[in-house]
């Protein structure tokens, strides 16, 4: 599966800006906000590229207790798990 296939699958819902997280088995796609519920209802459980999709609204990452995963450091650049991020908004959908 690639970002183009994901974008095509969600085209009826204004799907754009698809991102596949390689090796993790999930991705994100932005859909039109007024089409979000329709996209979830229609595409959750659908098959794409031989995989069954689980579609829901993206949730913010939960912070891990006790540092969870290294990072920090790096001259104020954030590091792994160190915030940064931003720009996700409420329209990202994971599949």
How would you explain this protein's 3D organization?
This protein is an alpha+beta fold and 95 residues long. The chain has a single domain, classed as Alpha-Beta Plaits (2-Layer Sandwich). 16% of the residues lie in helices and 21% in strands. The protein is built from two helices and six strands, in the order αββαββββ. The chain has helices at 3-9, 36-43; strands at residues 16-21, 26-30, 47-48, 51-52, 56-57, 92-94. Strand 3 (47-48) and strand 4 form a beta hairpin. The relative contact order is 0.21.
Can you summarize this structure?
With 95 residues, the chain is of the alpha+beta class. 16% of the residues lie in helices and 21% in strands.
């Amino acid at each position: 599966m690639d970002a183009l296939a994901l974008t095509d699958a969600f085209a009826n819902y204004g799907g754009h800006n698809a991102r596949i997280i390689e090796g993790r088995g999930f991705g994100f796609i932005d859909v039109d906000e007024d089409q979000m519920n329709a996209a979830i209802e229609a595409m959750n459980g659908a098959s794409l590229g031989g995989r069954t999709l689980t579609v829901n609204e993206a949730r913010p990452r939960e912070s891990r207790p006790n540092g969870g995963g290294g990072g920090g450091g790096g001259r104020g650049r954030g590091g792994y798990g160190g915030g940064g991020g931003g720009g996700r908004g409420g329209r990202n959908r994971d599949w």
